[in-house]
């Protein structure tokens, strides 16, 4: 086990989950003028879910969080197969999948940290 690497991955995961759990207005404010493609976000969330499985397997995360992480991966797995050429900011309010992801991210953070309300990460560290 690489304690420093696992600590970094856990921190990255929690920062990203915090962004996913935030309300659409906060997410849009966080994005600002950044042109973040939906496909990139979907791929990053799916990577996050796989990474979290490994972290929990190494005893770094709360095992009960896997329910929300796996549900998020399943929900985005179907969505990932669709072609995405647009920006995430344009889809946040328009696509119901992001409301589902938001709810699951909140469950995840509540289970892992006891509260889902956390300051958003700096925009350069999702």
Give your account of this protein's structure.
This protein has 126 residues and is mostly helical. The chain is 67% helix and 0% strand. The protein has six helices and no strands. The protein has helices at 3-21, 24-31, 38-57, 66-80, 88-91, 96-113. The chain is globular.
Spell out the helices and strands N to C: HHHHHH
Return Rg in Å. 14 Å
pLDDT < 50 stretches: none
- Distance between the ends: 24 Å
Identify the quaternary structure here.
Answer: single chain
Mean pLDDT: 90
Strand content: under 5%
The chain-level structural class is mainly alpha
The number of helical elements comes to 6
Major beta-sheet overview:
none
Number of strands: 0
What is the share of helical residues?
A: 55-70%
Categorize the overall geometry: globular
Pick out its properties:
126 residues, mainly alpha, 6 helices, 0% strand
In brief, what are we looking at here?
This protein is mainly alpha-helical and about 130 residues long. It is built from 6 helices and no strands. The model has no long low-confidence stretch (mean pLDDT about 90).
């Amino acid at each position: 086990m690489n304690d420093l690497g696992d600590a970094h991955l856990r921190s990255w995961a929690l920062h990203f989950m915090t962004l996913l759990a935030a309300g659409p207005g906060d997410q849009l404010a966080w994005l600002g003028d950044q042109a973040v493609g939906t496909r990139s976000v979907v791929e990053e969330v799916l990577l996050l879910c796989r990474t979290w499985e490994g972290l929990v397997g190494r005893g770094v995360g709360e095992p009960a969080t896997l329910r929300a992480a796996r549900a998020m991966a399943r929900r985005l797995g179907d969505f990932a197969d669709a072609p995405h050429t647009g920006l995430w900011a344009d889809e946040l309010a328009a696509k119901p999948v992001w409301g589902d992801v938001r709810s699951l991210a909140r469950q995840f953070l509540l289970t892992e940290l006891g509260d889902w309300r956390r300051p958003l990460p700096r925009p350069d560290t999702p």
